[in-house]
From TrEMBL:
Highest taxon, organism lineage: Bacteria
Annotated protein name in UniProt: (Fe-S)-binding protein
Keyword Signal found: no
InterPro entries: 4Fe4S_Fe-S-bd, 4Fe4S_Fe_S_CS, Cys_rich_dom, Helical_ferredxn, HmcF
Keywords of this entry: 4Fe-4S, Electron transport, Iron, Iron-sulfur, Metal-binding, Transport
Biological source species: Nitratidesulfovibrio liaohensis
Annotated 4Fe-4S ferredoxin-type domain residues: 60-135
Length: 463
């Protein structure tokens, strides 16, 4: 069968097709069709000729098979040090084979490669830190995912995620109307406790434009309210865009390169329209990577820079604390032992560990580092799309063991996790292994301990 109704080489571009795919419960029909999906060898060859650059070719050729990347990979460690989980083996047996065979591969090979690409690598890039030749398996796996997506071999959930971005401009079905109404609703909800609080939409020339994760307005609108409260307390001149507010990119997880470009260009268009001095993104690692690290190149920006300075949320919080825009009540600091999860995407891949440590120095009295930590920390176990793929849930649960053991070693029951995927993985870790921990984003913790200026407190009515 060349292509199926659900599993095919076409990206999902219409709401009708998206709803049909969502109706295929668990992807049952999708995966049946995938088993019969023929590889378009000529198209795969053409894609290799067009996109396989000298860096990737060189990396595949110079790998010395020394195995030094093995222990850097948490998936190798939690899978009984299976040689097939060594990063070098994983990439050479998949992308390496496609390149060596010049695209002459079959359906069975592509399905095995799909499993490796999405259940044996989270693209955390830790292995690249330890390779003596500087080979970055994470970058190559991202490239491999793109080849697989172009041929229709992508997990069902990520085909849907890609379609959500293409149809709704967000990873969930949140329309512009839904989004603006949520902003109005959350602002109204806070008026009694936080008089004067607003969530300005499409305000031009603000100091800050805030962008976020679609899961927040869809499932956790209180997160948006908490962001608004903290900007309000800090006295920020800020806004959100009515369009281009979604910072995340499941298209990146899916390997949908064209979708990645479409998504980030929506955000950049909002910057061009509203002209903020800076952009602050929410507590999400992959959103930061997609918009700030990879985004400029997807958008074809020759300087490799975003159209305005972009900050991850931890950068803004660190700045607000050190400049005194936000002041912490010493009596309300976290007293119990607390540890911190380092997001791969903005710590290892963007060097922001110093900001999270500054924050912890303000809010915690008994901070315990994980071992290892900062850029050497292990992936949470759910990154790169791993959290959301039902087909690989067992492998994901095994992958959580490394983070479980790191947390247990700290002796802490509270984990600060300023990243959506990390937050989700640690939540699922507790559900799976029941080690008695709690986890939190920064926003609710900060609100619980920040000093509220008198002029921002509700005024008591005269009797």
């Amino acid at each position: 069968m060349p292509e199926g109704t659900f599993c095919n080489r076409r990206p999902v571009n219409t709401e009708e097709d998206l709803k049909a795919l969502l109706g295929d419960k668990g992807g049952a029909q999708y995966y049946k069709e995938m088993a019969e999906l023929e590889v378009d060898v000529e198209a795969l060859k053409a894609s290799l000729q067009k996109t396989l650059q000298s860096r990737t070719k060189t990396w595949l050729e110079i790998c010395a098979h020394c195995g030094m990347c093995a222990d850097s990979c948490f998936l190798y460690r939690v899978n009984d040090r299976d040689p097939k989980q060594v990063p070098a083996y994983k990439i050479q047996s998949t992308l390496g084979e496609i390149v060596r065979k010049k695209g002459e591969v079959d359906t069975a090979f592509m399905m095995r490669t799909m499993e490796v690409a999405w259940s044996q690598c989270t693209c955390c890039n830790r292995c690249g830190m330890y390779c003596p030749h500087g080979i970055d398996m994470g970058v190559m796996f991202s490239y491999l995912r793109g080849l697989l997506f172009s041929q229709g071999f992508v997990p069902w959930e990520l085909k849907i995620g890609s379609g959500m971005h293409r149809v709704y401009g967000a990873q969930m079905d949140v329309t512009t109307e839904d989004w603006v109404e949520t902003c109005e609703w959350m602002a109204e909800e806070q008026q009694e406790e936080w008089p004067g609080l607003e969530i300005p939409v499409d305000k031009e020339d603000a100091d800050i434009m805030y962008v976020l994760n679609a899961r927040e307005p869809k499932h956790y609108p209180e997160d948006l309210a908490e962001a608004a409260i903290l900007f309000h307390l800090a006295g920020e001149n800020w806004t959100v865009p009515s369009e281009g507010w979604e910072q995340t990119s499941l298209t990146m997880f899916a390997g949908d390169w064209a979708g990645c470009k479409m998504q980030v260009e929506r955000v950049y268009a909002a910057v061009d329209k509203l002209r903020p001095k800076r952009v602050v993104g929410t507590e999400c690692g992959h959103a930061h990577r997609a918009t700030v690290i990879e985004g400029p190149y997807w958008a074809g920006r020759p300087d490799g820079r975003t159209p305005a300075p972009f900050l991850h949320y931890v950068e803004w919080v660190s700045e607000a604390l050190t400049t005194g825009k936000l002041k912490i009540d010493p009596e309300k600091r976290i007293k119990e032992p607390v540890t911190l999860q380092d997001s791969c995407n903005y710590v290892r891949n963007h060097g922001l560990a110093k900001h999270t440590r500054i924050i912890m120095s303000y809010i915690a009295e008994d901070f315990h580092e994980m071992a290892p930590n900062r850029e050497h920390n292990y992936c949470c176990g759910g990154g790169g799309g791993f959290n959301g793929i039902g087909r690989y849930r067992h492998q994901r649960n095994v992958a959580l063991k490394t983070k479980r053991d790191q947390i247990l070693a700290t002796g802490c029951k509270l984990v600060v996790a300023p990243c959506h995927n990390c937050w989700d993985a640690i939540r699922d870790l507790e559900e799976e292994y029941e080690i008695g921990i709690r986890w939190s984003f920064l926003k609710p913790l900060l609100i619980s301990m920040v000093i509220v200026p008198e002029h921002l407190k509700p005024q008591e009515e005269d009797e």
